[in-house]
Design brief:
Mean pLDDT: 82
CATH class of one domain: Alpha Beta
CATH architecture of one domain: 3-Layer(aba) Sandwich
CATH topology of one domain: Beta-carbonic Anhydrase, Chain A
Number of helices: 10
Distance between the termini: 82 Å
Helix content: 40-55%
């Protein structure tokens, strides 16, 4: 009898262990994405480094970089989307959600010591950082979660609103609002340089997935020194000498409306006969 009790207890313990294991298996885990083997990546680095660079202009370190660029860590977002030849022209600062507070030391260095005349802050569509903020990020390690948690400052109020927007529309709105917030923080921090005309803070949305329907990797200037009205931005003195054709991407990107297809309403004789019979049945 004693052995039977021991057996029952072991069986219960085994069942509980399996149940706990099954619950652990159900927890969401980060996706493991197939990628290029590390040795192939190192080979490509070495091949690129040994390539003929005689036609490449030398990096000029005598002048300030054109841009101190604050961007999301998204690997699809590269400096070549900002300038055709970014060497020595773009001082890049990257973090999750293109947040000013997460990279103050690097930004201060680019602006106060390298004397970049432009601070460019870009958010991008299909942003994983913004999506994690919207959908939840409690299963991430503390360091990652803490950085995403800072998005509560620019986006917390909008997150709590009952919105009828679709998930894609909500994500786009959050990207735009986050850029506006980061620009406002930059304007406050670097106000003295802005007042002395030594710095301009430019906020942009980079559409890496054609979310607005106006073309992949289109860059939209949505904020300059805190001004968010596209019409007012276009009238700013610093844009007066720019060709008006180039100003089409200045202002909030508007979703491209889908063309409505008009169905042929003409009825064939057979369709007219069916319709007439249907009407008779209703009478």
């Amino acid at each position: 009898m004693h052995k039977k009790n021991i057996f029952i207890m072991m069986l219960v313990f085994l069942c509980l262990s399996l149940h706990q294991h099954a619950r652990a298996e159900m927890r969401p885990v980060p996706k493991i994405r197939a990628g290029v083997p590390p040795f192939d990546i190192i080979r490509e680095i070495l091949v690129t480094n040994r390539a003929d660079k005689q036609n490449t202009p030398p990096a000029d370190n005598s002048t300030a970089p054109y841009i101190t660029w604050l961007a999301d860590s998204d690997a699809r977002v590269q400096a070549e989307l900002i300038l055709a030849n970014p060497v020595a022209k773009v001082f890049s600062v990257r973090n999750l959600g293109n947040q000013l507070a997460s990279s103050l030391a690097a930004l201060d260095y680019g602006i106060e010591y390298l004397h970049s005349p432009v601070l460019l802050i870009t958010g991008n569509t299909d942003s994983e950082a913004v999506r994690f903020f919207i959908e939840g990020y409690k299963d991430f390690p503390q360091a990652i979660g803490s950085e995403i948690d800072h998005l509560n400052l620019p986006l917390g109020d909008f997150q709590r609103q009952d919105s009828k927007l679709s998930p894609n529309e909500k994500e786009r709105m959050f990207v735009e609002k986050n850029v506006d917030y980061q620009v406002s923080m930059a304007v406050e921090r670097y106000n003295e340089r802005i007042r002395k005309k030594r710095l301009i803070v430019v906020g942009c949305v980079l559409d890496v997935v054609n979310s607005y329907g106006l073309g992949t990797n289109q860059l939209f200037i949505t904020n300059i020194n805190g001004e968010t009205d596209g019409k007012k931005i276009k009238k700013m003195s610093l844009l007066r000498t720019i060709d008006k054709k180039l100003l089409t991407n200045v202002g909030r990107p508007q979703l491209k409306k889908k063309k409505r297809t008009i169905k042929n309403t003409q009825q064939t004789p057979e369709k007219e006969k069916v319709t007439e019979n249907y009407r008779r049945n209703l009478l």
